[in-house]
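User: Hey, quick favor. My workstation is busy. Could you predict this chain's structure for me?
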Amino acid sequence: MKKLNTAIIGYGKSGYGIHGMFYKSELNNMIDVKAVVELDSERREVAKNDWGCDVYEDYTAIFARDDIDLVVNASFSHMHYPITLDLLKHGFNVLCEKPFCETAEQAQEMIDAARENNVTVTVFQQSRLAPYFIKMREVIESGVLGDIFEIRASFSGFSRRYDWQTVQSYNAGSMRNTGPHPFDQVLYLLDIDDMPEVYAKLGNYNSYGDADDYVKAIITYPGKPLFQIDINPSECYGDYIYKVYGTHGCFKCTATSYEYKYYVPEEVPE
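Assistant: No problem, here it is.
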């Protein structure tokens, strides 16, 4: 299979530490990195040494190339929307890091631009494929837990951030940085086209910047379980990512383990 000639925009935590590290691994049989765009000169030198590829300071330099099959947009969060839209209008397929953008209108604009230019745009939501999430869905769909009435997601920990991901002007904060993972998973589980009823509280309690570091959301919809999502920087004792409550039992998982307990109605006294 032909590998995709790829350009990475941004060679920091995501571009280098997530995408770049995977592309270097033995699991990668799809991607050839042909160009890296990075504002910082030292990071550009790292990219050049890593890949032996062309490096640029400005992403518009890619427009002159006709050999790029895919662009990975791992730039700063506030740059995701304008850069992705520009790339799409110039005929490039784009994989954009989260957060995809700031508003639903911006998301629709990018989708429309992709259709108009016959290219593909998607957002990097790898948590849908996380083994714990796949296993949780299998257990729910098996029916052993009975009717599911509540699902809790906790993407929390005990930490204090002090990087650009804490500054509102960078389109940052826990809701937009961490939130896309549990919210995407929950919306997948909800499997509805309508808008659910949502209660949410965002706060800034111990991070360096002015963006939210705390998120609490409760989502309900007729005939569906109640969903609770927590992102809490002061959670010292969290021992789960998901808990699922059903009429016959409960499921709990972390990123690396799971357990569940249930009873069989036909085997217990009335």
